[in-house]
Amino acid sequence: MTDDSSRAQSLRRGAEALGPWFHNIEIAPGLFTAPDHFLGDYPMVKWRSFADAVPADLTAKSVLDIGCNAGFYAVEMKRRGAARVLGIDEDERYLAQGRFVAEALGAEIEFRNLSVYDVGALGERFDVVLFMGVLYHLRHPLLALDLIHTHVAGDLMVFQSMQRGASDVAPVAEDYDFFDTGHFDDPGYPKLHFIERLYAGDPTNWWAPNRACTEAMLRASGFRIEAHPEEEVYLCRRSATPVDCRPVYPARPPG
C-alpha cells in the first residue's frame, strides 16, 4: 500500500467517524466528507455562484467565520491568502470537523466554541466577517446583527440567509399614519416569518425573512449593501447605524 492510499484510507475513516457532515469538503483528491449530500456538492454549488464577488486577494486580512460549521468558507478564505481566519460555532461536533478538515488540508485556521451572541468576548474587529446561513436559526436575529456591527465587523460582511416569500422589494415610505395598514399586506413589504414548530425537520429554523426584510434588517443594523451576487447572498460594508440602534445586554443570574 502506498503512502498516498494509506493516508486516504486514514482520512476516510476519520471523516466517517466525525459524521454526519453538512459541509461537503474535498479533503484529498477525490475524497469528500459528504458525497451523498441532499443538496449536491454543498456548499461548493452555492460558493461558485458568488465567489467572484468576494475579494480574490485577502493577503494580510483577518477573517471571522460566524457559525462556521465544518469550515468550508473558512478554508476558502485561507486559500485567498487571509493572514488569520477564525471560525466560531456552538456545536463541538462541527468544530471537530473543522479542525479535522484544516489539518487534512494543511490550512492554519483557528476554531473556537462561541455563539454569535458572545462575539463581544473576542475583543477585536475583523477585516471580513462571514455570517452565512445563521440568521434564520437564531431566536434573536436583529440582536445578532447589532452585536456583529458593534464588536467584530471592521469593514466587509458576507451575509447569507434562507429567504421565503416574495422576492420583490416594495418601496417603503419614511412614515405611515397609525390607521394606514394597507402596506402590511403588500408581498414586497419587509416580513420576517416566524416558525413556531419545525421547518424541514429542523427545530432551530426560527425565522424566514423575505428579500425586503433581509435588506431592511441589514440596513437597520448599520450595514450598507454593496452587492447582491446571489439570491440569498449580500456583500455589505459596515457603516453608521440608525439613530438609537444598539445591542442590548440582558443581565445573567449568578452561576
TrEMBL record:
GO terms for biological process: methylation. Keywords: Methyltransferase, Transferase. GO terms for molecular function: methyltransferase activity. The keyword Cell division does not apply. InterPro entries: Meth_Rta_06860, Mo5U34_MeTrfas-like, SAM-dependent_MTases_sf. CDD domains: AdoMet_MTases. It comes from Methylobacterium tarhaniae. Gene3D superfamilies: Vaccinia Virus protein VP39. This is SAM-dependent methyltransferase. It comes from the Bacteria. It holds the Pfam family Methyltransf_9.
